[in-house]
Amino acid sequence: MRAQNGDQSFTHRCRVYYEDTDAGGIVYYVNYLKFMERARTERLREMGFAQSTLAGEDLLFVVHSSEARYYAPARLDDELLVSAQITELNRASLRFKQQVRRATDATLLCEGQFLVACVRTNSLKPRAIPEALRAAFAAVSGAGKHSEQEIKRGS
User: Fold this and answer.
1) Which of 3, 17, 64, 135 has the fewest CB atoms below 10 angstroms from its CB?
2) Catalytic residue at 22?
3) 7, 22, 78, 105: the active-site residue
4) Which of 60-69, 111-120, 134-143 is predicted with the least confidence, judged by mean pLDDT?
């Protein structure tokens, strides 16, 4: 695991492929959720944790709830920048704020919030986020500098 300090932004680059679009060449709305899922997974990997390894440790992250707003369309071959910012860290869950922007002009295309729960692999029952993972999330979310309540308020 890499040591990290402060509120560090994370951006995942991806490309719009034909399979991501509708007949008009515009990204189908649900695919933005896929782009954001990949960014959360890559954020975790960048922190030194692979989801495949965590599953072997009786730990999964599942989306509890999501909210998305769409502003402008992405099109075939666009390069996208997908952020994954942790805004809330709780005992068994965390909240992400995410944005999808077009790389060429930084136009905001979509943004969303996701509440992600930590659960046991077999039972899917909630479990506490392990301390090493919790510390890594705290480091990248600024929780090392702020309390969980301050993160919730956006301080």
Assistant:
1) 3
2) yes
3) 22
4) 134-143
